[in-house]
Specification:
Blueprint: E1 4-7, E2 10-13, H1 29-34, H2 38-51, H3 60-73, H4 79-82, H5 85-98, H6 100-104, H7 111-122, H8 127-135, H9 139-146, H10 152-166, H11 169-175, H12 179-202, H13 207-210, H14 213-220, H15 226-252, H16 258-261, H17 264-271, H18 284-292, H19 296-304, H20 306-316, H21 323-334, H22 340-352, H23 366-374, H24 383-386, H25 389-410, H26 414-436, H27 440-453, H28 459-475, H29 479-492, H30 500-512, H31 516-531, H32 547-559, H33 564-581, H34 605-611
Helix pairs in contact: 2-5, 3-7, 5-7, 5-9, 7-10, 8-11, 9-10, 10-15, 12-15, 12-33, 15-18, 17-20, 18-21, 20-21, 20-22, 21-22, 22-25, 26-27, 27-28, 28-29, 28-30, 29-30, 30-31, 31-32, 32-34
């Protein structure tokens, strides 16, 4: 075939790069690429790869840019890996690290980035390519970049390539020569890279002086201004963190270096690491925690860290895409006899809220699996004696819902069940009336009585009762109880996590206890439910997002911004410096420049919800909402 060769179902066009004038150089890469005869093209390309690191040519960056594009679009094509591209890229990286004069000439500063990216792209899916890369000696050059010899931009592509090499059994041994250094570097990068990127790039006061031009060009491909640079820097910083965690996953999955990875301080930091909205395809920190929970040493370390267990409990009761990973971690901990008692006091209440959960993430009857894990041998001595009273009460309630009540109702006639349902409806109506009269505590008690009467199999009615009781507890500022009830309502909804009012109520409750990420996820799901609800033709009819929900999303996005902690740290440092210069000035802290006002919680949003309801009477008090 002229001018190209097939790669899978795609076709690489070797004439994409055209020369303006005929070239007589024997080692010109572009001339070699234009050769249509493979028997002539392949030796010339191999010669180019051999000579390129030794020559000084301003066209090197164009060659690597073209190779980068081919490696990204055709990572499974075997031609360049078989002709020595890995050895060439490794030597170019070493030259960039060891020869600063060469790096500063022409556009050579771009070359180490492109070279490491090409290695990572070709090794992403083919173990045989990874073997060729290791044999060509790419690991030492990549380690130089990982050590920070250049900048965070090169560290990002270096750890990506190292992670790919570490993911294959065939190449793990070669990478493991640097195991302790890689693990230590990845842990430090994961913990500090966001602060470093903010300090050196995103938070730069003087963009023209502090931001390196080549980094801006790589981020934006020469298109876009400061806003695009900031957006891409946030995305790349998240990838740097997530790819560092992925490399740790490769070692942890083989139960290597667990003594380093399972340090308590790092596990606590791991809980705060998530891909964010810019990198939602990566499980980030919870993915590594889940891998650790598959090993005995990992479960022991995770179970000993209360902060980590609480974080997993919060994730398990959220609308996050990785909710199932949080549940998996807790189940692995609870099912381990050596760890069970230590974590049960913390894990039992959140897991008990999930025992009626249906299918999530392709997993069937998740709630039944949770119930089996919770009830495992806990009503037998001596295990029961070791439990705290709170955990014991929770497990008794689970036994009642999943076993005792179902068994009792199974023996009841249809008339008796309908009578129970009618009595529950009466209690619910009484609760609604008391709620509207402002008797919130009495209304909550009525909803509780209705839940006791309502048959277990009547899920729709119980969703409403749990959600209404969550609203009562939200008004009473009992955020934990509101989260529990809203979670139970969401578990009973079909599909799971789809009941809009419960999502909004739990979002407010999470806001009250300072869990911004969980609040944000619920609020986004709530808005999605309104926008894409059944029967609304979104293309023909514009759907308005309520102001109170938009305000909540804005608040939580600011709080969960990838660089929020780094920005807060910087402002606190600046405030401390101002205080040192002038002791008379008031100390300013925090991330907001707004004057101090009365502290707000999620409950205040209820008033805004009423204000946005057109054609309806405003409530005299902020908590008056129509119960369902």
């Amino acid at each position: 075939m002229k001018g190209g060769r097939k790669s899978g179902n795609r076709k690489i066009n070797y004439k994409r790069v055209q020369l303006q004038q005929p070239c007589e150089a024997a080692s010109c890469f572009f001339c070699a690429m234009r050769e249509s005869d493979p028997s002539l093209r392949r030796p010339r390309i191999a010669k180019c790869f051999t000579e390129m690191p030794r020559r000084d040519d301003e066209e090197h960056v164009l060659v690597l840019s073209g190779l980068w594009n081919i490696a990204m679009t055709h990572p499974s094509d075997p031609e360049f890996p078989s002709l020595g591209v890995f050895g060439c890229m490794g030597r170019l990286i070493l030259r960039g690290v060891t020869d600063p004069d060469w790096l500063a000439r022409d556009q050579n500063v771009y070359i180490p980035y492109y070279a490491a990216h090409i290695i990572g792209s070709y090794t992403i899916a083919k173990p045989e390519f990874a073997e060729k890369a290791v044999a060509a000696g790419v690991v030492p050059p990549l380690m130089e970049l990982l050590r920070g010899k250049l900048s965070w931009v090169e560290q990002r592509v270096a750890i990506r390539a190292i992670g790919h090499l570490a993911s294959y059994d065939r190449t793990m041994e070669s990478v493991s020569e640097y195991e302790s250094e890689i693990v230590d570097s990845c842990m430090k990068l994961a913990a500090t890279c966001l602060d470093a990127v903010y300090a050196s790039f995103v938070g730069a006061k003087d963009r023209a002086k502090q931001r390196l031009k080549y980094q801006c060009d790589l981020l934006t491909r020469g298109l876009g201004g400061a806003e695009m640079e900031n957006r891409k820097a946030e995305e790349w910083a998240s990838q740097l963190q997530c790819w560092s965690i992925y490399a740790l996953n490769c070692f942890a999955s083989k139960e290597r270096s667990l003594n380093l990875i399972c340090r308590e301080g790092f596990l606590k930091e791991l809980c705060e690491m998530w891909g964010g909205l810019v990198n939602d395809a990566s499980p980030a920190g919870v993915g590594l925690l889940r891998i650790l929970c598959f090993s005995k040493q990992g479960r022991r370390s995770v179970g000993d860290c209360e902060v980590v267990v609480r974080s997993l409990c919060n994730l398990a009761r959220s609308s996050d895409d990785w909710q199932y990973m949080g549940i998996d971690c807790l189940l692995l901990l609870v099912q381990d006899p050596g760890v069970r008692i230590r974590v049960l006091e913390l894990a039992a209440p959140p897991l008990a809220d999930l025992v009626e959960l249906g299918d999530i993430a392709g997993r069937k009857n998740v709630g039944d699996a949770i119930a089996r894990a919770l009830l495992l041998s806990d009503f037998k001595e001596p295990m029961k004696l070791k439990m705290g009273r709170e955990a014991e009460k929770v497990l008794e309630a689970v036994m009642d819902v999943k076993v005792a009540r179902r068994k009792k109702e199974k023996g009841m006639s249809e008339e008796e069940l309908q009578e129970q349902r009618a009595m529950a409806c009466v209690k619910k109506q009484r609760g609604n009336e008391r709620f509207w009269r402002g008797e919130v505590e009495e209304a909550a008690a009525c909803y509780s009585e209705a839940l006791e009467l309502c048959p277990v199999k009547m899920a729709k009615e119980r969703v409403v009762l749990y959600s209404n009781r969550a609203q009562c507890r939200l008004i009473l500022k009992d955020a934990e109880a509101a989260i529990s009830d809203a979670t139970r309502a969401l578990c009973l909804s079909s599909p799971a996590n789809s009941h809009k009012k419960s999502l909004w109520r739990r979002s407010q409750a999470y806001d009250m206890v300072g869990l911004a990420k969980e609040s944000l996820m619920d609020c986004i799901m709530y808005v999605n439910g309104r926008v894409f609800r059944k029967g609304v033709a979104t293309k023909e009819k514009q759907v308005k997002v309520p102001y109170y929900a938009a305000r909540m999303i804005n608040k939580q996005m600011n709080a969960t911004w990838l660089f929020a902690a780094a920005r807060t740290k910087e402002r606190e440092d600046e405030s401390d410096e101002d205080c040192c210069r002038d002791d008379g000035n008031e100390k300013e802290t925090g991330i907001s420049a707004a004057p101090a006002t009365k502290k707000t919680t999620g409950v205040c949003s209820v008033r805004e919800e009423f204000s946005s309801m057109k054609g309806k009477r405003r409530a005299e008090t902020p908590w008056r909402r129509k119960s369902t």
